[in-house]
């Protein structure tokens, strides 16, 4: 039985839950994330996103036309002050099958990375290896992560502005060892809605800065930039996310995606020639953006 059912929920929270379930279900369906007979390992860090992910998947499991198994997993990285009893108690209370994996990646990272340097990339690599190994041990063919729409958009900007690549975070991908499919069922959910839901549900959140690392500075800057944009021109994050799903290779510049070299008068080109269009760009939403002449 789900904990969610025991908690008296306000009608607003109920509505928000339904909305998020709808969004999650839509993403799962559109990207065919979960199929009959799947075993899904749900990665739970104790943050708002992973609690929401688990709640959504449990709710959808009840009424999905396909049968799948969910196993919640938490990796105890032995960070000082990590409250090791919180997640097991929570998993017990909601009656989900779970696995807690203990691995002192904290010491490894502290040992290998000089003081003041960013620890996240080594930490994530170690974590990824442990998650894949656990999925194999448990016979899970899918691994669900709690990244949401805003994470995906921020990653796009991060890669564009600092990595010179037009690349976001995919809703679904195959792991390097070809053993599992990683899914992001919250791809259509905004961070603000997830935060509201998590507050309403009073999830026992575990702080994410126990390792002492500051959040990646560049990612933080991108977040601030998007937040600022969204305040001034509401709906921009959503619009950028839609753009990720709506790519026009003939209007980018990647020879690998579109054969510009062999372009002839007969080559079909999506969306036609916009080279001489007016610099005013009609953008879906409320505010047209004026480009400099
Ligand atoms: S914030 Fe800490 S726990 Fe999270 S990835 Fe970075 S080093 Fe690891």
Automatic annotation (TrEMBL):
Major localization listed first in the record, in broad terms: cytoplasm
Location(s), subcellular: Cytoplasm
GO CC annotation: cytoplasm
GO molecular function, one term: magnesium ion binding
Reactions listed under catalytic activity: cytidine(32) in tRNA + S-sulfanyl-L-cysteinyl-[cysteine desulfurase] + AH2 + ATP = 2-thiocytidine(32) in tRNA + L-cysteinyl-[cysteine desulfurase] + A + AMP + diphosphate + H(+)
E.C. numbers: 2.8.1.-
Gene3D superfamilies the record matches: HUPs (3.40.50.620)
Motif (PP-loop motif): 45-50
SUPFAM superfamilies linked: Adenine nucleotide alpha hydrolases-like
Top EC group: transferase
InterPro entries named among the record's database cross-references: Rossmann-like_a/b/a_fold, TilS/TtcA_N, tRNA_Cyd_32_2_STrfase, tRNA_thiolation_TtcA_Ctu1
Ranges for domain tRNA(Ile)-lysidine/2-thiocytidine synthase N-terminal: 40-200
Pathway membership: tRNA modification
Entry function: Catalyzes the ATP-dependent 2-thiolation of cytidine in position 32 of tRNA, to form 2-thiocytidine (s(2)C32). The sulfur atoms are provided by the cysteine/cysteine desulfurase (IscS) system.
Other notes: The thiolation reaction likely consists of two steps: a first activation step by ATP to form an adenylated intermediate of the target base of tRNA, and a second nucleophilic substitution step of the sulfur (S) atom supplied by the hydrosulfide attached to the Fe-S cluster.
Complex and partners: Homodimer.
Name this protein carries in UniProt: tRNA-cytidine(32) 2-sulfurtransferase
Organism expressing this protein natively: Azonexus hydrophilus
